[in-house]
Amino acid sequence: MGKTLKKMGKMSRREGVALSTGDKVLKIMQRRPSAPGQHGGNSGKRPARLSVYGIQLREKQKAKRLYGLLEKQFRNYFTKASRMEGNTAENLPRLLEMRLDNTVYRLGFAKTRPQARQLVSHALFCVNGQKVNIPSYTVKVDDVITIRPNKVLKPIFNELDDRLKNQTVPGWLHLDLGTKEGKVVSLPEGEDLKEVYDPKLIIEFYSR
Question: For the Small ribosomal subunit protein uS4 N-terminal domain, which residue ranges apply (predicted)?
Fold first, then answer.
């Protein structure tokens, strides 16, 4: 499995938005909001204006890095979204949101998407009672996501109760605080699909 080698803080500065909710990334963005490199904002020169292609590329990179995907993986999502019925600009973010690692993150079981991906890869979660260790696994309506019983006492979950109490869960998911069960109650729609990237620009990029 390929890994993104660049640090999340540097990628966030390059894209101009925080690509992770981790404390370290947020502090970096507050302290050094400009792009990395010698021309990132300290040279005194006005930043170069991006071409239409450049704007589309940056949106694609932003989305790809937000979900921690490689180019081939991301393009496959676009291809699948474009072949589905309905609006591709809604299908693409919906497919990305319904990845298991992202669902784990949205439920609050992990602090960040990279952490969620790692926890899923280490087989700490079940879907409908079955162990799943594939981060790209696509959840479906009525799927129930739980922490495996023999993993719930791991140190990574020590502060889980407090975190879940403050977790804002999107409308397409339901979280039971008592049982620590998450359920997919609907497909992501409307506000649930709004992120820091513009899917229409990504579609234009791949449709050239």
Answer: 6-97
Number of domains making up the chain: 2
Angle at 150 between CA 98 and CA 180, to 5 degrees: 50
Beta bridge partners of residue 183, listed in sequence order: 144, 174
134-168 pLDDT, tens digit per residue, is 999 999 999 999 999 999 999 999 999 999 999 99
CB 22 within 8 A of CB 111: yes
Residue range 37-65, pLDDT digits in tens: 555 555 556 566 889 999 999 999 999 99
Q: What is the DSSP letter of 20?
A: -
Residue 145 lies in a domain: yes
* Same domain? 106 vs 88: no
| pTM check: above 0.85 | no
Structural Rg of the chain based on CA atoms: 18
Q: Looking at the structure, do residues 83 and 147 belong to the same domain, yes or no? A: no
Question: Does the pLDDT value for residue 29 go beyond 60?
Answer: no
**Domain coverage including residue 92:** 8-37+49-96+195-206
Q: Higher confidence at residue 205 or residue 26? A: 205
Whether 44 is in a domain gets the answer no
180 and 201 share a domain?
no
Q: What are the DSSP calls for 124-172, one per residue? A: -EEETTEEE--TTPBP-TT-EEEE-TTTTTSGGGTTHHHHHHT----TT
Residue 170 lies in a domain: yes
